[in-house]
Backbone:
């Protein structure tokens, strides 16, 4: 597929168009009294069409819409992550939402619209369009977090996420305004071309704008000290929504961070030091606070903060190695983190289950295969070989070592050792703890079994045979590198 630069080129946004069409159909279904089972089918077909369109874009280089939207392997790679995340969240959601009495068609439409926003963020080279994508992504997420209207925790999650998201958007928009004031443009390519002149004529305003942009994106990827909303939102939102939160928006935030700071502002020398501080704080705070958690969803929330810190190590490394290692890690993280949440979703379909550690006791005796899969995901999250979690961390840390940031890698490895304690607590509870009451068996559905098979196969298969994913991540670079 040959995509060339053009003022208006719809070839570049075929995946987004597929998802938007599917979401519009879902939103109008209630007016025609369509059956509730139709919405997930339409959503799945929309994601399938978007996946095919994304595959067709691989290897293409170009831009469109007056240069505001790029088509390169970097953006296409992140589209793969978004489609994968959305599909697995959709499969997790149907049975869970039905069991909780909140299975409404708008969930599937909002899921697709949010995915469109993520794709816009990953594909844009203009700061205003990136902001537009962020808002398209975020607004459906606010609704999805609070969609369990009779749950006070879900209501709290929706409100907290909305307030913190509004703050993040305000910081980001103010940063864009300062960058525009300093450079006269929001086009990253023009900023790169005129960077020396901008730094000599408007350095303070540009640096202030860059700082505000980093704060805005920091909220979205849950970097410390912008992480405070994560535990309550993750715990209160419906679990399939939490699973979607933990991978999709985080990957979109890092896609924008990489595009903006590894390309647009790569010559701002102080950013390397800032990324080092963010990496150390995010890894350490996430892992230390996870040690004292007794709820699996809350533990995975702090875990997601810690993993954001590992990805910041890739940003510190920079260059082609840093970008490709970040892409590799995010693909790997999508598999084993969504797999862990899939087990939680399955457990929470039981009446009264709140994902506390005590509710895992006896799991291995009643469901030995499920407990084995849960152990696999915990080993991957902690970075044990031969899982893809080990390969991902190795690739990220190797990129940092090659760039000369050995002390940072030592801190990262120490944090990985620290995380082993709380991940193995989950395994220990499910295998060795006994419960005073009989373990309530879970009821499997074909969709959740498919999710567990796909995530487990990806976690173990890509760990044993990482070559193809390594090649994929090395090819996922900006068109401008």
Residues:
């Amino acid at each position: 597929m040959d995509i060339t630069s053009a003022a208006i080129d719809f070839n570049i946004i075929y995946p987004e168009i597929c998802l938007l069409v599917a979401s519009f159909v879902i939103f109008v279904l209630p007016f025609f009294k369509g059956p509730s089972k139709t919405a997930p089918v339409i959503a799945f077909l929309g994601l399938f069409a978007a996946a095919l369109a994304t595959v067709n874009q691989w290897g293409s280089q170009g831009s469109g819409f007056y240069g505001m939207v790029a088509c390169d392997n970097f953006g296409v790679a992140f589209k793969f992550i978004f489609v994968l995340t959305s599909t697995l969240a959709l499969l997790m959601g149907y049975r869970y939402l039905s069991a909780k009495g909140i299975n409404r068609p708008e969930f599937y439409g909002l899921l697709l619209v949010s995915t469109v926003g993520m794709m816009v963020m990953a594909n844009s080279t203009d700061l205003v369009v990136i902001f537009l994508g962020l808002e398209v992504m975020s607004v459906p997420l606010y609704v999805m977090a609070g969609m369990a209207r009779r749950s006070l925790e879900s209501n709290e999650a929706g409100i907290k996420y909305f307030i913190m998201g509004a703050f993040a958007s305000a910081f980001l928009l103010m940063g864009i305004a300062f960058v525009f004031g300093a450079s006269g443009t929001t086009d990253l390519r023009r900023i790169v071309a005129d960077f020396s002149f901008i730094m000599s004529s408007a350095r303070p305003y540009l640096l202030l704008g860059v700082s505000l942009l980093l704060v805005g994106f920091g909220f979205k990827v849950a970097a410390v000290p912008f992480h405070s909303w994560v535990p309550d939102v993750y715990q209160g939102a419906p679990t399939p929504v939490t699973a979607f939160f933990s991978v999709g928006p985080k990957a979109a935030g890092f896609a924008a961070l990489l595009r903006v700071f590894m390309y647009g502002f790569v010559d701002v020398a102080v950013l390397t030091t800032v990324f080092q501080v963010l990496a150390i704080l995010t890894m350490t705070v996430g892992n230390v606070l996870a040690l004292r958690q007794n709820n699996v969803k809350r533990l995975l929330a702090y875990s997601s903060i810690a993993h954001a810190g590992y990805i910041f190590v890739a940003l510190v490394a920079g260059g082609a190695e840093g970008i490709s290692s970040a892409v590799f890690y995010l693909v790997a993280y999508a598999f084993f983190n969504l797999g862990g949440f899939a087990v939680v979703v399955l457990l929470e379909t039981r009446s009264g289950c709140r994902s506390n550690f005590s509710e895992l006791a006896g799991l291995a005796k009643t469901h030995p295969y499920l407990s084995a899969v849960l152990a696999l995901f915990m080993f991957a999250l902690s970075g044990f070989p031969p899982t893809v979690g080990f390969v991902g961390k190795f690739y990220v840390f190797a990129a940092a070592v090659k760039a000369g940031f050995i002390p940072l890698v030592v801190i990262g490895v120490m944090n990985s050792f620290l995380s082993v304690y709380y991940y193995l607590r989950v395994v220990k509870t499910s295998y060795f703890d006994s419960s005073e009451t009989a373990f309530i068996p879970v009821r499997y559905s074909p969709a959740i079994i498919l999710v567990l098979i796909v995530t487990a196969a990806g976690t173990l298969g890509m760990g044993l045979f990482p070559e193809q994913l390594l090649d994929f991540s090395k090819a996922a670079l900006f068109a401008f590198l």
In short: The two ends are 21 Å apart (CA to CA). DSSP finds 19 helices and two strands in the chain. The first strand starts at residue 62 and ends at 64.
